[in-house]
Specification:
The chain has helices at 30-40, 53-61, 76-86, 107-115, 134-138, 170-176, 188-196, 201-206, 210-215, 236-247, and strands at residues 4-10, 24-25, 28-29, 45-50, 65-68, 94-98, 124-130, 144-147, 153-157, 178-187, 220-223. The chain is α/β, with parallel strands linked by helices. Strands 1, 4, 5, 6, 7, 8, 9, 10 and 11 form a nine-stranded mixed β-sheet that branches. A hairpin with a 2-residue loop joins strand 2 and strand 3. Helix 3 (76-86) crosses helix 7 (188-196). The protein starts with a strand and ends with a helix.
């Protein structure tokens, strides 16, 4: 496997769960769980990127490398791009964006995502699983991706895609879509190009940054996770679910 780094973007402000990175799960702050998942992977190094001194202080106390970034960033990708510049990383270096609200992401999936770039035929790599239920298929909170036979993403949407023209096709439609997980791998040069481009009309409409990459003609390779990705945390309910999962 090609060497790669993990960067964990973490911000304190969250509309649905304020102070999310520092919320306690099974006796430790969530950001520490995420950091441990990163260090359990094959990554050469793991860096926490934040603009908040409270997160930095906690992270440094448990031994993490921290890179302080600006407060202007609108996405984790923008924050990680600043890390690439601050640490003077070469355009060819592979970075995995491990989001700061994924405390149960298996280390094996971090490796799997990074390995999808090994053959050099894709700009970005990510993971997506079969849709678990019709409720998930219809939910705008579950991002769907349609993938070509070569494993590359065709389109991402919050809508239930593909659209079934008849009732008899509804199951086929749900089985065609995949549930996208918010983990990415990219080379620093690709990331720099991505964040320097303007938001595409598709991205603005769906509020999905990966659509900017597709609009730029970038190739996004999609892998099916080798094991369940674990519970992400956006709400108090998610926090309780993650507590149960990590405590067990």
């Amino acid at each position: 496997m090609t060497d790669f780094f993990v960067v964990i973007p973490a911000r304190y402000e969250s509309v649905r769960l304020p102070g999310k990175p520092l919320r306690q799960i099974a006796g430790m702050p969530m950001i520490e769980h995420v950091y441990r998942r990163g260090t359990e992977s094959s990554a050469t190094d793991v860096v926490i990127a934040t603009d908040d001194a409270r997160i930095a202080d906690v992270a440094e106390a448990f031994g993490a490398t921290v890179c302080m970034t600006g407060k202007q960033h609108r996405s984790g990708s923008e924050r990680i791009a600043e890390v690439c510049d601050v640490l003077d990383w070469d355009d060819r270096r592979i970075v995995v964006n491990l989001q700061g609200d994924e405390p149960a992401m298996p280390a094996a999936l971090i490796d799997q995502c990074a390995s999808l770039l090994d053959d050099g035929t894709a700009d970005i790599a990510t993971l997506a699983s079969p849709i678990a239920s019709r409720e998930d298929f219809l939910s705008p909170d579950v991002v769907k991706v349609i993938v070509a036979e070569n494993g590359n993403a065709i389109y991402f949407s919050r809508a239930a895609i593909p659209f079934a023209r008849s009732d008899s096709q509804k199951d086929a439609a749900m089985n065609t879509a995949l549930h996208h997980h918010g983990i990415y791998a990219y080379r620093c040069g690709v990331l720099r190009r991505l964040v320097s481009a303007r938001a595409s009309d598709l991205e603005i409409c769906e509020q999905l940054e990966q659509l900017r990459a597709l609009a730029l003609g970038m190739t996004i390779r999609v892998g099916i996770p080798d094991e369940p990705p674990g519970a992400g945390v956006d709400t108090e309910k998610d926090l309780l679910r993650a507590e149960a999962e990590l405590s067990s």
